[in-house]
């Protein structure tokens, strides 16, 4: 049968073949570029309507597509303790690889690999719901199989481990012998969210580069709430050590923590509550060492030994808060040298469980911090914003009063033989320095009562100064009647407060009874110091007792409002109570 194709000279046929080859190369080039465009997600639509070309070059494109997938399977290489940062486009998962040559894996021994990631930003909710939901979590997918390569986000694949981010963080530890492939992906959050996912991912053979503390009950949290007034709050870490020999060295070091404060109703930050970069980039109030050094800063942080035991801890003071508001504090532990965290094991930081706290509704109580004489006092005291608009002047007034009262005590101590033989000393267990310290603690605590809003629901807080007008000179007849019914409610525990400070009605958290008993135990009987007997009227209106069911049943300097476990109480008040009961013979008290 004769051929229907035209017959071309040999040279012409060679020319046609060259043209076709060039066409293949040009279209292949277009396809390579298309892998970075929307066309790469749907190659069939690109070829639709061009059947002739599709038939001619389908095989070539198939080879090209395999090549593209092969390159994707390789992933972006990771290095030990070196985080990679990227914005994630929905529908375009990102792949990384921890190569055995870089991390030192071999088939003869399985080595641990620590993979961690932080969400540094998540889409914002722009919908109409009153309580803003969070966008879908990022997902960390990991494969240790070269056959699988980069895990696909939604496919059911063998040898793939998937870890949804929790609070903006994900951690996975596995033992490996070969390359490890890591995919970061997220489901489409929909039109009710705007913005992108920003994240950082790291792999380490030492430890997790980014880490967070699993949820714990309040009594085990690392960040504690000490106290608040209507515009400021004081937070503190737990003891950095309980070894007295190491305390001096720790106090010379840089503070190890940063705290990030946010309004309690901010659900967006809750989606990054375990992410160090998410908190650093999105929290409203960062309480960092750098911020506290700025001029006119409203935050301050430093190391201190205030509080029970006298061990080092880190304080965080935050000013400029809203009255009667709820807040959340997030504490992060970072490496000391902030400029060289990349490349360091654990350089991304550890995020601890968040701590909730609140401010008071009125300005009747003011935070007393940074006192010169009563240096262990760090809680809210009765105030008067009209008479003392500057809190510094208020606490100085209190401090000077306590210092003056202490000078009278020093005159009494001059009559005691402190420097003498052991047989002449008043006690073999205590000395005059112990007496002075115990008396100073007691004096500062009773001179500066721990103040609560008059609206406080604390069942152990008692009414004070009910017969006086509020600082704005308003009077509530119902409150005045409370003072008439109970004389202890009608005035403050000492006349100095009512005469000089004039705070108006407030509630007081009574000092813990052991503060008084410590003076009796530590001082010579000759000075005549006695405490009221438990269950007597004088005791019930002057001192409080601890109650496991009430977080702040009584006031002991340095103890927080955050509930703490029994192990955190560094002295046994029950033992003090028993011994004091034996030696106390009276119940008269100075205040």
TrEMBL record:
The UniProt record lists the keyword Disulfide bond: yes
MF GO annotations: calcium channel activity
Source taxonomy: Eukaryota, Fungi, Dikarya, Ascomycota, Pezizomycotina
Transmembrane spans: 570-590
Coiled-coil regions listed: none
Organism: [Torrubiella] hemipterigena
Residue span(s) of domain FZ: 360-523
Protein name: FZ domain-containing protein
Signal peptide bounds: 1-34
Gene Ontology BP terms: calcium ion import across plasma membrane
InterPro entries recorded: Frizzled_dom (IPR020067), MID1/Yam8 (IPR024338)
PROSITE patterns: FZ (PS50038)
Keyword field: Disulfide bond, Membrane, Signal, Transmembrane, Transmembrane helix
């Amino acid at each position: 049968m004769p051929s229907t194709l035209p017959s071309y000279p040999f040279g012409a046929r060679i020319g046609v073949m060259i043209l076709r080859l060039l066409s293949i190369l040009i279209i292949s080039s277009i396809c390579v570029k298309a892998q970075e465009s929307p066309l790469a997600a749907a190659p069939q639509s690109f070829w639709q309507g061009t059947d002739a070309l599709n038939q001619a070059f389908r095989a070539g494109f198939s080879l090209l597509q395999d090549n593209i997938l092969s390159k994707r399977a390789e992933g972006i290489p990771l290095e030990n303790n070196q985080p990679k940062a990227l914005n994630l486009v929905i529908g375009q998962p990102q792949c990384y690889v921890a190569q055995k040559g870089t991390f030192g894996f071999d088939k003869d021994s399985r080595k641990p690999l620590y993979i961690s990631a932080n969400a540094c930003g998540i889409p914002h909710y722009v919908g109409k719901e009153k309580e803003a939901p969070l966008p879908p979590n990022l997902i960390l997918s990991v494969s240790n199989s070269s056959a699988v390569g980069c895990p696909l986000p939604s496919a059911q694949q063998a040898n793939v481990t998937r870890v949804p981010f929790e609070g903006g963080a994900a951690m996975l530890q596995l033992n490996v012998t070969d390359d490890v492939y890591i995919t970061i992906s997220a489901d489409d959050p929909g039109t009710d969210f705007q913005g992108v996912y920003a994240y950082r991912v790291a792999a380490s053979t030492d430890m997790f580069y980014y880490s967070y503390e699993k949820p714990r009950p309040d009594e085990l949290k690392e960040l504690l709430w000490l106290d608040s007034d209507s515009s400021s709050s004081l937070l503190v870490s737990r003891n950095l050590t309980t070894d007295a020999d190491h305390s001096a060295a720790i106090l010379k070091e840089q503070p190890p923590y940063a705290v990030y404060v946010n309004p309690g109703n901010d659900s967006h930050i809750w989606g990054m509550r375990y992410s160090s970069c998410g908190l650093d980039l999105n929290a409203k109030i960062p309480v960092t060492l750098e911020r506290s050094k700025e001029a006119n800063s409203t935050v301050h942080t430093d190391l201190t030994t205030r509080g029970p035991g006298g061990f080092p801890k880190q304080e965080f003071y935050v000013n400029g808060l809203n009255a009667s508001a709820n807040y959340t504090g997030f504490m992060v532990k970072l490496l000391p040298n902030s400029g060289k965290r990349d490349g360091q094991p654990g350089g991304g930081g550890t995020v601890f469980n968040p701590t909730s706290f609140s401010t008071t509704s009125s300005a009747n109580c003011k935070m007393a911090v940074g006192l010169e004489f009563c240096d262990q006092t760090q809680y809210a005291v009765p105030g008067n914003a009209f008479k003392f608009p500057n809190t510094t002047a208020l606490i100085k007034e209190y401090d000077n009063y306590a210092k003056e009262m202490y000078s009278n005590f020093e005159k009494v101590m001059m009559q005691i033989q402190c420097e003498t033989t052991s047989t002449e000393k008043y006690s073999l267990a205590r000395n005059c320095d112990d007496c002075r310290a115990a008396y100073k603690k007691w004096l500062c605590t009773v001179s500066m009562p721990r103040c609560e809003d008059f609206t406080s629901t604390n069942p152990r807080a008692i009414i004070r100064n009910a017969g006086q007008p509020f600082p704005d000179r308003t009077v509530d007849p119902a409150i005045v009647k409370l003072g008439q019914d109970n004389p202890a409610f009608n005035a403050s525990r000492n006349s100095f407060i009512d005469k000089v400070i004039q705070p108006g009605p407030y509630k007081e958290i009574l000092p813990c009874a052991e503060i008084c008993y410590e003076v009796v135990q530590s001082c010579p009987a000759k000075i005549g110091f006695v405490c009221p007997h438990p269950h007597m009227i004088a005791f019930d209106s002057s001192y409080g007792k601890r109650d496991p069911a009430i977080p702040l049943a009584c006031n002991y300097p340095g103890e927080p409002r955050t509930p703490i476990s029994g192990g955190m109480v560094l002295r046994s008040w029950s033992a003090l109570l028993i011994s004091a009961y034996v030696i106390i013979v009276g119940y008269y008290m100075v205040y």
